[in-house]
């Protein structure tokens, strides 16, 4: 019988040939089947059936031949197992789909839904099996190896230099033996792991670790220390490329210098270093402040940039003029446009140090600085006001702690320590998101904490290594689980691609050379981590934030991408000097901003990179990159110039306690509370005032959608826009004793929708005593038209219902709903929860760490700015506001529009064109058109 085993062996080798048939046939069958939905293309249905039949046949045959190949060839490991299981699953699903198809054709099933679902599932599993097969054939980094930053994983020049060094010496030191071994292991990693690793141990040979190398494989020992000629490994790598036994196969023969390194290693005893193999480039952790080059430049940044220019054959160009610098500085520090009078004063100022004074003044504007930079930190720390996780309480924001930290200019090392080892208010950062339902092992909250810290603070990609050994860095699965264990209250079991490995994690930090984080409790470990991560020796932490700030102010990081801090910087000395200077400033973030902005490099004209590729790769610094306004900057600029874009905020920095809630009549259907129905509702609130004289009485009211307000039977005001808060002086309508507030409210629309009254009244007596009345559940309401004078104090409302509290979740906190002075203010976009308009302009959801936003305009943004109902509504409101403000004077409208939006007067050509549009008697529509044409100008939308 054994004499016929070769037939089975041969059939197994047909697996790679057959496996492509079901892929093509079933995928095409799915597309053809989808095209028949709705009764279309009936003529192709017969062909679709045959594709399914043939695809199923070949799927079964491929799975059978793959099983034979697994038995007769040297394939083993988890990856092989997974490929086999998904291949068999594909065959089973394909067979089931065929059965469902036959049942449908025979009218035993009512329609094609079950068959189509089976076909979709078959193709999905088929795709997974195909990917695993490609990984087996071409290696786990088959897809990622072509990504930017992954091209040069093995430094061939480094190996050549080491070979030359060792050839010239008679004895090799222990340090040199370590280096030699690490180079050989790097050669194994890039040429051999795809067939000889723990995941795919062909011939039972594993070259991934010491035990596997010296154990050998199915054919025996592969290395004889001290004798390369008798070592099977050396024999195989020196065979002719056409030899059947040559290694590695697939035409990827080793280079001559690589073979020589392996030979030298074996000849010198095949020493195995205790050091971890660093397959990928890895930046030094230590930070050393470079010496500054000799230069006439005063600013240290410019000394380094000057030397860089000299090396790259570049010269300094003239700095930007004052108007451009001022606009750039305003937008970068406080996120707002400078006002026309401030621009004129700055341009006419003759002081030599006026730019430094401007920077100092803007950095001292605590409120606007904080509200602008809040967006950067919200992105970076994955902090938001609403979204996934908040509904279930599985997520907590850190806004109050973050706002206070920025306003106080808290040292960065203290901020990091308080994020890692939370104080009250900062614990939301490492809490992570508790997702609804079951998540995989790489998304458990402890792992999220490790991922967030790694990416946001250290510029390290922990996500890849949370599922398997990283394909883009030296991080291993063990390291990521060791890091995540810091935040876990129990021992974590390692999971590779969500499959338990039966191995428990050991608590550790990604960079253990900084110190130990071990502790009996989570709190002890967090404290140890907080002390260790902020050490001055941790150059990675301080390089990362320095690189992020350079990118923020210059449009492109010194290292790109920002989250891959092992990549080579375009100027390593500049990065290390700035990071060292930041440490010496006692981690002062404002110092770092000023240091960059005071440089000539920052004040150069925006560099003209004609191709986006010039910014991403082969980058040469020539000046700041032209930057688009962020979603928040654009919104705030429109609010400054035209009309407030947003009226409500989610976080209020002023700490004023407004306890009023939105209330409405309770709507009940089938014993359940439902949304308010359209129509008119009536509200009453009785209250008693003392006999003391009233010094002042102010009332605030906002109703969605419209209202009429009565006090003690007298009509006081009415309104039909909930965004506009009516601030009323009501002292003359009040009296000692019993008083009454009555409101007639209307909810518009054709279906049930949120509606609410927001009311607050503050009465101050001459005794300085204050009485405040707010809308709350002590108010009463009815949906029936009242009989009699329902606005009178004496009216009997005993039959009326108690109102329902709708909170403020649908409306946010109106910025004008305050008894404090709010003249000239508008809702800063950074304080507003995610809005469709800002989302379209690029504000992220913040469910993940976001370290940079896409600078490229999208079709969605173009459509939103062109035809978006929301944006056009803002322009419409602004048009009516401006016509009233400038008394329908077209000349004043044009002049002020350009001064406020662009910081300059219009040219004669621009003035003439816009005046022609507006005419002598401008209408709201023409003013709106003029606004729009200005807001979409590159001069408005970009930071030059």
From TrEMBL:
<feature type="domain" description="Cytochrome c">
    <location>
        <begin position="154"/>
        <end position="270"/>
    </location>
</feature>
<dbReference type="Pfam" id="PF07635">
    <property type="entry name" value="PSCyt1"/>
</dbReference>
<dbReference type="InterPro" id="IPR008979">
    <property type="entry name" value="Galactose-bd-like_sf"/>
</dbReference>
<keyword id="KW-0349">Heme</keyword>
<dbReference type="Pfam" id="PF07583">
    <property type="entry name" value="PSCyt2"/>
</dbReference>
<feature type="transmembrane region" description="Helical">
    <location>
        <begin position="84"/>
        <end position="105"/>
    </location>
</feature>
<dbReference type="InterPro" id="IPR019251">
    <property type="entry name" value="DUF2231_TM"/>
</dbReference>
<dbReference type="GO" id="GO:0020037">
    <property type="term" value="F:heme binding"/>
</dbReference>
<dbReference type="InterPro" id="IPR022655">
    <property type="entry name" value="DUF1553"/>
</dbReference>
<dbReference type="Pfam" id="PF07587">
    <property type="entry name" value="PSD1"/>
</dbReference>
<keyword id="KW-0812">Transmembrane</keyword>
<dbReference type="InterPro" id="IPR011444">
    <property type="entry name" value="DUF1549"/>
</dbReference>
<dbReference type="InterPro" id="IPR011429">
    <property type="entry name" value="Cyt_c_Planctomycete-type"/>
</dbReference>
<dbReference type="GO" id="GO:0046872">
    <property type="term" value="F:metal ion binding"/>
</dbReference>
<dbReference type="InterPro" id="IPR009056">
    <property type="entry name" value="Cyt_c-like_dom"/>
</dbReference>
<dbReference type="Pfam" id="PF09990">
    <property type="entry name" value="DUF2231"/>
</dbReference>
<feature type="transmembrane region" description="Helical">
    <location>
        <begin position="50"/>
        <end position="72"/>
    </location>
</feature>
<keyword id="KW-1133">Transmembrane helix</keyword>
<keyword id="KW-0472">Membrane</keyword>
<protein>
    <submittedName>
        <fullName>DUF1549 domain-containing protein</fullName>
    </submittedName>
</protein>
<dbReference type="InterPro" id="IPR036909">
    <property type="entry name" value="Cyt_c-like_dom_sf"/>
</dbReference>
<feature type="transmembrane region" description="Helical">
    <location>
        <begin position="20"/>
        <end position="38"/>
    </location>
</feature>
<keyword id="KW-0408">Iron</keyword>
<dbReference type="GO" id="GO:0009055">
    <property type="term" value="F:electron transfer activity"/>
</dbReference>
<feature type="transmembrane region" description="Helical">
    <location>
        <begin position="117"/>
        <end position="136"/>
    </location>
</feature>
<keyword id="KW-0479">Metal-binding</keyword>
